[in-house]
Amino acid sequence: MLFILPECRSLDCEQCFSRDFCTKCKPGFKLYKGKCLIHCPEGTFAHQTDCLEDCPLALMGEWSEWSFCLRDGATCGFRWGKQARVRETSQGGTVTEEKGASVCPPQSETQRCRMKKKCPTGETEKPTVERSRSF
């Protein structure tokens, strides 16, 4: 038995399930909820020929190391603080749509942590960033 696909009403659509519901867009368009769009709607991510509402985990990179345990910007003086870490796309957060890859936002998470040491009396210690100098 031969099944004939219906003719698509949209000029941007290559294949349709019905006249108004696209299943494959022409090159240069992204498929989202049966419609062909030039750009994915806000809150969605381009992935190959589709717009997805969730970023595929396969494209996410590794988690960073946990940050310093901080509270109000200090690493001491409190019993509990918070620390954070991030995970960006496996392409370093700069994936182009032309290659058909996803553009996923970095993910982050925080956790409660115990402060590592007491501050000298009346002082709070701010984390320092080591910088190397080249002469």
Automatic annotation (TrEMBL):
Which named protein is this? R-spondin Fu-CRD domain-containing protein
Q: Which family does it belong to?
A: Belongs to the R-spondin family.
> R-spondin Fu-CRD domain spans which residues?
7-49
Question: Sorted alphabetically, which PANTHER family does this protein's record hold?
Answer: NEUROHYPOPHYSIAL HORMONES, N-TERMINAL DOMAIN CONTAINING PROTEIN, R-SPONDIN-4
Q: Give positions of region: Disordered.
A: 115-135
Q: Where is the composition biased (Basic and acidic residues)?
A: 123-135
Sorted keywords for this record are: Disulfide bond, Glycoprotein, Heparin-binding, Secreted, Sensory transduction, Signal, Wnt signaling pathway
Name residues in a coiled coil: none
Q: Name one Pfam family in it.
A: Furin-like_2
Cellular compartment(s): Secreted
* CDD domains referenced in this protein's UniProt entry, alphabetically: FU (cd00064)
